[in-house]
Structure formats: structure tokens, C-alpha cells
Write a structure and sequence with these properties.
By secondary structure, this protein is α+β, with helices and mostly antiparallel strands. The chain has a single domain, classed as Jelly Rolls, CATH 2.60.120. 20% of the residues lie in helices and 26% in strands. The chain contains five helices and twelve strands. The strands form two sheets. The protein has an eight-stranded antiparallel β-sheet with strand order 1-10-7-12-5-4-3-2, sandwiched between helices. A four-stranded antiparallel β-sheet has the order 6-11-8-9, with no helix packed on it. The structure holds 2-oxoglutaric acid (AKG). 2-oxoglutaric acid binds next to β5, β11 and β12.
């Protein structure tokens, strides 16, 4: 288990590229429990064909085109689960998990607070890509103020092996130094937005279950479609620095 003292963090890479891989942030037992919890959440909406909220958790369906607001390609097929912590004790505990908090703290956040938690499933063959975007543009209100005043860091944690073939998480290195591209929350989720960002330092880190990518809230990122027979699931968490106030 990672502790403050043995936490391996490549600061130079983080600062230059705006992202860094942390191997084995979560152990196999935790990953397996999170996968079971994700399956249980998915079972609750096994028959839905439109976006659905249950107990504060939002289930966004995966359409055939990848566009939001369209019917599910197959009943119960999901693209995103927002706020799994509202329905699952395990996901709720993850928001204060010492290993994740220490990793986020290592990026420079004095007092990290999780403001968004999600699961991003991508079904074998049917899961569509994610357009490149900067998360900071999708954070509003008090959380956005904290980000602008004190900073933030985002984390994705692989629940399955992730690579280019199954629509692994893609980062556009060094874009965290560029201004926010305002997508006005209305961008076409079936596109890739590739023309909007510099893709020169694009990478798709190969991740094993439990590995994480820490990335800057201004870093452009996305993912391709799942062309494999393997599903791909990620946990995504957005953190802001509560600072001293
Ligand atoms: O699922 C993915 O590959 C990317 C998800 C993402 O970037 C997001 O939900 O903001």
C-alpha cells in the first residue's frame, strides 16, 4: 500500500506533461470489490434505454452513435455513472481513501476534496470514444472557484486492463498550459474534437487494474472507441484544493 514516504511520483513528468501514471495505486482486492460494486449498480438499470437517476446516482446510457440524449444501443448499456458514491458505500469510502488522497496531495494540493466521482464503462465493441476536452470547463460554482483559487488534480483508476484497443484513456500532453477551450457543455459526444487541441504529445498509457493516471484539470484528454472484445471500466475522481479556508 502506498504511503506518503514511499509514494512514487515523477514530479518533472507531471509538471512538463500535465499527467503522470501511478502504478498499483489500488490493490487487487479493492479493485475487485469496486468491480463488484459497479456490476451491482449496473444491474439496477439493466433494462433502461434512456438516461436515469436513482438515489442521486446518474446513469448515462451508451447510444449507438455515442451521442448523449439518444436511446441506449442495447438496454442497460452505459457510458457513464456519475456519483456512484451516492449509492455505494465502497465508492463513498473511496472519496477519503488514504492512497488516493496522498497521490493527489503529492501534486501540490494541501487539502484535497473530491468534488466529482464517476465510473466510465466502455462496453466491448459497442463503447464509443470520448471527445477531447478539458475537465475544468465542466466544473461550476464553488468547486470551480476552489479550482481557480487553489488548484486541482484529477485521477482515473483502471478497473480493467486498458490500452488503445479497448478505448484506453488518452492524454494530450502539455495542453494544460493552454487556455480553456469553451465547449459550452454542448459538444457532440460522437466526435473526437481532435482539431481543437494540440495532439503532438498524445499518449494512451497502458494500464493494469489498480493503476492510475493523475492529470491536470486543464489537460485535454479523451478516448477512442472500444474495438476489442474486452470491456473497459475506469473510476474518475476530480479533486480541488480546499486550501486553508
Ligand atoms: O471514459 C473515458 O475514456 C473518458 C472519460 C472522461 O474524460 C470524462 O468523463 O470526462
Amino acid at each position: 500500500m502506498a504511503t506518503t514516504s514511499d509514494f512514487a511520483f515523477d514530479r518533472a513528468h507531471w509538471e512538463r506533461e500535465g499527467w503522470v501514471v501511478v502504478r498499483g495505486l489500488l490493490d487487487g482486492h479493492t479493485v475487485s470489490a469496486l468491480n463488484d460494486a459497479t456490476d451491482a449498480l449496473q444491474e439496477q438499470v439493466a433494462d433502461v434505454i434512456v438516461d436515469t437517476t436513482i438515489g442521486g446516482t446518474f446513469f448515462e446510457v451508451q447510444s449507438a452513435s455515442g451521442r448523449k440524449g439518444e436511446r441506449a444501443a442495447v438496454p442497460g448499456l452505459l457510458r457513464k455513472i456519475t456519483g456512484p458514491s451516492k449509492s455505494s458505500a465502497l465508492f463513498s469510502r473511496l472519496r477519503t481513501d488514504r492512497r488516493i488522497v496522498e497521490a493527489v496531495r503529492a501534486t501540490g494540493l494541501a487539502s484535497p476534496r473530491c468534488v466529482i466521482d464517476q465510473v466510465n464503462p466502455k462496453a466491448a465493441r459497442l463503447g464509443s470514444g470520448f471527445p477531447f476536452h478539458q475537465d475544468a470547463g465542466f466544473l461550476f460554482g464553488a468547486a470551480r472557484e476552489r479550482l481557480d483559487e487553489s488548484g486541482g488534480a484529477h485521477v482515473v483508476i483502471a478497473l480493467d486492463p486498458c490500452d488503445e484497443d479497448n478505448g484506453g484513456f488518452e492524454v494530450l500532453g502539455r495542453t494544460h498550459h493552454t487556455p480553456l477551450v469553451d465547449l459550452k457543455r454542448r459538444y457532440d459526444t460522437s466526435s473526437r474534437n481532435a482539431g481543437l487541441f494540440d495532439t503532438s504529445f498524445r499518449e494512451v498509457p497502458r494500464l493494469h487494474p489498480g493503476d492510475a493516471v493523475l492529470f491536470h484539470p486543464y489537460l485535454a484528454h479523451g478516448s477512442g472507441p472500444n474495438r476489442s472484445d474486452r470491456r473497459r471500466r475506469l473510476v474518475t475522481m476530480w479533486w480541488v484544493d480546499n486550501g486553508s479556508g
